[in-house]
UniProtKB/TrEMBL annotation:
Belongs to the IMPDH/GMPR family. GuaC type 1 subfamily. This is GMP reductase. Keywords: Metal-binding, NADP, Oxidoreductase, Potassium. Pfam families: IMPDH. NADP(+) binds at residues 108-131, 216-239.
Length: 347
């Protein structure tokens, strides 16, 4: 047994220190980033926020809406190939270039990914997603997907430490997805005692990835626009959001009326709800590692995404970053023991 004494931080442990700035208005801040990915050589330009591949967030409708802002959506893996065929027929490259095809690591997943990618050249992102990215099997699977799709952008995860980020990039991933346990409907830390504070995971994994020319997605744990900024400030190239984009018209969750008010169901992808829906219940050998919540129905996602982008722009003006790309260079985090003042309730 070993104890690491290094300090590890979550979003709630820090704030940005304001810095002098020549920016007059948040409208001067550019959130668009241009990436050329390491293995595929692909270029992508957009606002590097991604709706999570959860089945009450990452829907086709979400992709159509968010792509208007060049924001990405990782489409959940429960659509059939026929569903995808319908989606690619009605939507142009501006939507499809911003949609990620999610997959697990089974033989059937591999075949399904091949079938979906064969529908159109406009799909360029593959998101290989398993809860425990430390499995040797993931590395082999990334190599296999890279060999099959040399020119597609491959994301793989989830991991939280630099050693594994390096291994996945060397195996062929352009992007590594970072986060174990921080998610809003995740109970991994409670059920297993495993996890890593998300801001430190991002800082350490970004450092490892950037050294090799790879990119990372900070996945999970953002509860407000300020957290999204902190993830970018810590070095995340992309930030993935589940709960912040759930509960909207486009989230495609089940709507429930209770005492005249509308709610939408939102659940973790390893929750009992998800396993009941997609795998016929929780298998005997495992425990559910996600929960189910009812969120007040929030209408179209447009206002929320504008609000998030407005918050990030504002962060940039406070620290003097004219572009999102500069935010991490301009970021000095101060450790704090308080965040917002909740005297009149929570925002
Ligand atoms: P959020 O933005 O809601 O805090 O986090 C979203 C992320 O939580 C997802 O992208 C995914 O990585 C993670 N997640 C989703 N469902 C589950 C689950 O059932 N269990 C665990 N451990 N993580 C989940």
């Amino acid at each position: 047994m070993r104890i690491e004494q290094d300090l590890k931080l979550g979003f709630k442990d820090v704030l940005f220190r304001p810095k002098r700035s020549t920016l007059k208005s948040r409208s001067q801040v550019e959130l668009t980033r241009d990436f050329t990915f390491k293995h595929s050589g692909r270029q992508w330009s957009g606002v590097p926020i991604i709706a999570a591949n959860m089945d009450s967030v990452g829907s086709f409708e979400m992709a159509a809406s968010l792509s208007k802002h060049n924001v990405m959506t990782a489409i959940h893996k429960h659509y059939t190939v026929e569903d995808w065929a319908g989606f690619v027929k009605n939507n142009d490259a501006s939507v499809l270039n911003n949609a990620m095809v999610s997959t697990g690591t089974s033989e059937a997943d591999f075949q399904k990914t091949k079938d979906i990618m064969a529908l159109t050249d406009d799909l360029i992102f593959i998101c290989i997603d398993i809860a425990n990215g430390y499995s040797e099997h993931l590395v082999e699977y990334v190599q296999k997907v890279r060999a099959e799709f040399p020119t597609k952008v491959i994301s793989a995860g989830n991991v939280v430490t630099g050693d594994m980020v390096e291994e996945l990039i060397l195996a062929g991933a352009d992007i590594v997805k970072v986060g174990i346990g921080p998610g809003s409907v995740c109970t991994t830390r409670v059920k297993t005692g495993v996890g890593y504070p998300q801001l430190s995971a991002i800082i350490e994994c970004a450092d490892a990835a950037h050294g090799l020319g790879g990119r990372i997605i900070g996945d999970g744990g953002c509860s407000c626009a300020g957290d999204v900024s902190k993830a970018f400030g810590g070095g995340a190239d992309f930030v993935m959001l589940g709960g912040m984009l759930a509960g909207h018209e486009e989230s495609n969750g089940e709507v429930i009326e209770k005492d005249g008010e509308m709610f939408m169901k939102f659940y973790g992808m390893s929750s009992e709800s998800a396993m009941a829906k997609h795998s016929g219940g929780v298998a005997k050998y495992r425990a559910a590692e996600g929960k189910t919540v009812l969120l007040p129905f929030r209408g179209p996602v447009e206002n929320t995404i504008q609000d998030i982008m407005g918050g990030i722009r504002s962060t940039c003006t406070y620290v003097g970053a004219a572009q999102l790309k500069e935010l991490t260079k301009r970021a000095t985090f101060i450790r704090v023991q308080e965040q917002e003042n909740n005297v009149y309730g929570k925002e």
